[in-house]
Every structure is written in structure tokens, then in C-alpha cells.
Specification:
- This protein is of the alpha/beta class and 347 residues long.
- It has a domain of 225 residues: Rossmann fold (3-Layer(aba) Sandwich).
- 36% of the residues lie in helices and 14% in strands.
- It has ten helices and eleven strands.
- Strands 3-2-1-4-5-6-10 form a seven-stranded parallel sheet, sandwiched between helices.
- The termini are far apart.
Length: 347
Amino acid sequence: MTISVNMFIDINRGRCLAQLPEMGSEVKIVIAGGSGFLGTTLARAFVQRGDDVAVLTRRPHAGMWRSVRWDGESLGPWADEVEGADAVINLAGRSVHCRYNERNRREIIDSRVRSTRAVAAAIARAARPPRVWLQASTATLYAHRYDAPNDELTGVIGGAEPDAPSAWRFSIDVARAWESALAEAATGRTRKVAMRMAMVMGTDPRSGFSILRRLAALGLGGRAGDGRQFMSWVHEGDFVRSVDWLIAHEHLAGAVNITSPFPLGNADFMRTLRRAAGASLGLPATTWMVELGSFLMRTESELILKSRRVVPTRLLRSGFTFRFASWEDAARDLCARVEREDATVAA
């Protein structure tokens, strides 16, 4: 099935939908698969501003927000949380930080497709369905390329690049299946958005930034491969703000890239990170070293070597502004915050 923006646009897009509650009133947000880094980041931000937040998770626990048990694939009491919600955000899916063997591939795809279908079923049966459903997707859907950026309107979908390893096509298959499950969901008046997310950089230990910063601190933060591959990223603060923007702006439906407007090459990305982290040495890693390291760490080299040159055209055209558009500003902010947090813990 061909993936395009138009697949997700509701045929009733011109119809005026109900407005979100006025500023100052409580907004109800349900985050499915929200116990990871991204879900926790969103839940904390929404709770701190006074929203009613329910996180659907396999392992409920007491905390700042309601934690509700779900299995990620079948309807249950958790579906009651969807009733009357202003927004549902589905982030569920098995981690891709693993080797792509047959079992892991099946679990990666099934966890995404089944959870998406479960959310769709809950919305379909709701008497008061949510106004918007934000579904996680990935910027990895786009082609491995250097020549031009990929956006939602003219971007090239990956899978047929002559210079990309055949194993990389699996990630494209995952993204296609994920977005197809969203497109096929019958959810009536509920607006649907496929969030094609780049790497979200935050201070949480589970963030990719924490891993890269540790490598830089160890003197291993040099370029990977030839260093030409583009890295698309977004600061965690802008990630939260973009999600909030998508909830509030009813004309935005379909595929939306959530990424800084300025991706940059791996060599420049790592050089900037080293400066922000105060690391003078950055040993490079050749392609075979990346392949070997990925094997030993039980992950895939694609996460490092694929060129992800993605830009957020639809967000920018809608009026969204990034507080951390440049990687230099983002890296400085994140490194400074980590240092403050470390100092607080040490004290």
C-alpha cells in the first residue's frame, strides 16, 4: 500500500470540529505505551500544567499520573479511559534496539500494528470519542539519501535505495505497516495524525542523547562511517511543544514530521556534541567498526549509518516555531542540564 499524506486526511476535513477546552480548564489526555522515555516526558509536562493524564502500560505503578493496565492488543477496562478524552497518543511498540532476527522482527511489527488496532477499536466504540488521535510513527520511513531533504509533501519513501543494505528495508516495512493500520482505522470524527518522529534528544538516561554524550565523554564521539550521513533530531522540549501543537491545531491531520528543521551530517553532529560536552578527543569509527559494535551490543548499524535527512515542512507552515532549531543550541542546553542534574544528585 502506498503511504501518502492524503491517506490520512479525513474526507470531512473542512467540517468544524469541537474546540479543545479553553485555556485554564482541564484537558484529558490518554497516552498508550507511555511508560518509556517519550511517554514519561509527555505525561510529566501535561500533568505539570494541570491536565488529566492516564498512561496505559503493561506495568501500572503509582506516580504523578494515573497508570492503567493494558496488554497492547485487546480491548479491556482500559478502553474506558478513551471515553471523553481530548486526545489519545499511542506510543506503543517493542524497542528497535535489538538484532533484527525473525522473532524480533515479528514482535516489532506485531506490537505496533496490534496496539494501533486496539486503540482504533476503543475509539470506535466510544460514545464520546477523542477529538484527536496522535499515532507514533518514524522518520526512518524516508529514503536513505544525501542530495535533498525529505518532507511530508515531496519526500521519498525508502525501501528501494540502490546504495542501502537490503536489511534496512525492514524498518521501512515496519513504518508502512504502522501507518497503514492507522489509515485503515475507522474512527469517525476523530482526527488522525501520524507523527513521523526523529530521534528525541533529552536528559533521560533512556534517551539517545545520553548514549551519545557518554561516548563523547569516553573519547569515542567521533564520526561514524564516513560521517556524511544526515542525523535528524528534535530537542525534547520541542517534541512536547509539537505534540501540544498538533492537539490544538485541528487543520493538521495525516503525516507530520516531528524533527528539527536543520538535520546535519554525523561528523558535524558529533563535533558539535563534543564541544558542548567539553570533550576534546573524538575517535572515529569506521563502517566495519560500527558493524562489529552493533553486533556486540545486540543492535543494528542502520540506527547509526542510515542518512536521515528529514525536515518538518507541515509544522513550519502551520506556524510552529522551534525553540531549539539548531543542534548547537540544543546540545549546549542538554549538556548544561545534565551537569546541573548530576550536581544536584551529588549534593
